[in-house]
Design a protein that fits this description.
With 173 residues, the protein is α+β, with helices and mostly antiparallel strands. The protein has a single domain, classed as Beta-Lactamase (2-Layer Sandwich). It has five helices and eight strands. The protein has helices at residues 6-14, 81-87, 91-94, 110-113, 115-126; strands spanning 20-23, 53-56, 66-70, 76-79, 103-105, 131-137, 145-152, 157-162. The chain has a six-stranded antiparallel β-sheet with strand order 4-3-8-7-6-5. The termini are far apart.
């Protein structure tokens, strides 16, 4: 039997101010059948695997978007198939690695404004307003991709949607 903690229930209630969308990195950002899962559902109905997370509907990735799921310690916990293609790394190799091994702030001066780490911390803490920063693969210069960062969960995490070119492969390996 699935048990939700009081914190999970509180987080779900706090996140109800906007229309919600469910995401599951391996299958797609939304449920395959278009029907939202029950409030207590935690696993994808399509594949029976993975954790369902919810986020603001207006900030959720579209079916062909590249996106990453990152926790408050800046470790990767999931990525879409399109992010795998864009970054040139498989999810099973990238999960539990620090985000900085995959992407970093693209702006040289971002350290003064906090960059991607501050945007992630702010999104996770505040929960609702998307943040935007420019990122690049950690081993590539001269590439800038706009990233939209918004809270998702439970458990509380950050959804990073890479809004840059989908046809270009950014090799991280």
């Amino acid at each position: 039997m699935l048990q939700l903690s009081n914190l999970d229930l509180v987080q779900s209630l706090v996140m109800q101010d906007h229309e919600r969308s469910h995401i599951h990195a391996p299958c797609a950002p939304t449920c395959a059948d278009g029907e939202p899962p029950s409030p207590a559902a935690r696993v994808c109905r399509s594949c029976g695997l993975g954790l369902l997370l919810e986020t603001r509907e207006d900030a959720a990735p579209q079916r062909r978007d590249a996106f990453l799921i990152v926790d408050s310690s800046l470790c990767l916990h999931g990525m879409s198939e399109h992010a795998e293609q864009l970054l040139g790394v498989r999810e099973d190799v990238a999960v539990n690695r620090p985000l900085s091994e995959l992407i970093v702030s693209a702006d040289a001066e971002a350290g003064g404004r906090g960059g991607i780490a501050a945007a992630i911390a702010s999104a996770i803490a505040s929960g609702e307003q998307p943040r935007h920063v420019f990122v690049r693969p950690s081993n590539t210069f001269g590439v800038r991709v706009r990233a939209r960062i918004v809270a998702c969960g439970p458990p509380r995490a950050a959804l990073i949607v890479l809004e840059g070119p989908r046809a270009t492969t950014l090799r991280v390996v």
